[in-house]
Structures are given as structure tokens and as C-alpha cells.
Amino acid sequence: MALGSVNMVSFAPAEIGALLGNTSVIPFTRAEIDALVNRKAYPEGKLVYTGNIASGHNYSGSVTLPDDVDYIKLRHLHSLKGPQASWPSDGVRIARNTSVQLPYIGERSYDRYPTCKFSIDGVLTYPGFGYNLDELTCAIEGYHYC
User: Fold this and answer.
1) Using the 8-state DSSP alphabet, how is residue 59 labeled?
2) Phi and psi at residue 12, in whole multiples of 5°?
3) 59: which residues sit within 8 A by CB, 6+ positions away?
4) Rounded to an integer, what distance in angstroms lies between the CA atom of residue 69 and that of residue 116?
5) Contact indicator for 138, 76 with CB cutoff of 8 Å
6) Among residues 21, 19, 37, which one has the least CA distance to residue 29?
7) Are 83 and 105 in contact (CB under 8 A)?
8) Rounded to an integer, what distance in angstroms lies between the CA atom of residue 103 and that of residue 14?
9) At 101, is the pLDDT very low, low, confident or very high (cuts 50, 70, 90)?
């Protein structure tokens, strides 16, 4: 069964040029089509890593993430003193090679907005606190853009 028919008609060169705008040839490579499909299927990127990071009194949390993680979502899981309500419910997005001041209400003014860094090497660092009896635990979700 034929899917279509071919009509063999001779065209003058000017007529061929006029017809090129109406071709049904897809102007994308297979790799470009796959990338478009993946972007449609995973608009926020594909989840490629999950884990936790913790920091506390005089110690920083540090985690090395895989090379294919382009950005992370950091969600507040638990702290002994700091209010959880100061974090967005869906977490904080941090791209590779950036740093973000995160909301955290500590006992001292200099602890209120610690700077979390996600280096180009894939190391995520959350600074420690300057006061006792506190620990912060965050969930990490690492995403790769397709």
C-alpha cells in the first residue's frame, strides 16, 4: 500500500525556487528533535540526584554532586531552632556556579541569611552557624537540562 504518490512533472528553475518554501522536509537533525522532545517531557530538567545536606554549630555542610547536575532545588527539612516557614514551600533553586543567600532566622543577626554556594566543580556548601544547639538539614534534588 502506497503512502503517497509522486507526480513527475518538469518545472522551470523559477518554479522550483517558489516551491522550496512549501517542502515537507523537517529542518531539524535527529539530535535536535530528541532535545525538543526531552524539553517537552521534562520542562524543569530530569531529576538525576537526590540527597541531604546538614550544617550546624561551627561546621559547614558540603556535598559533591555529579557532573550532570545543572541546578539544584534545596528544601528545608529540619532545624532545631529556626522556623521552617521562612523557606519557600517548593524550595530554593540554585544554578551551578552561583551562590544564594538563604532565609534562616537565627539567634544572631549575622546568621540570618547564610550564603549557600554551588561551585562550578559541583560542590554544594552550606555554612555553619555561630551559636550552639542548632542544626539545619536540607533535601537536595539535582536536575539536568535535557
Assistant:
1) B
2) -75, 155
3) 128
4) 16
5) yes
6) 37
7) yes
8) 66
9) confident
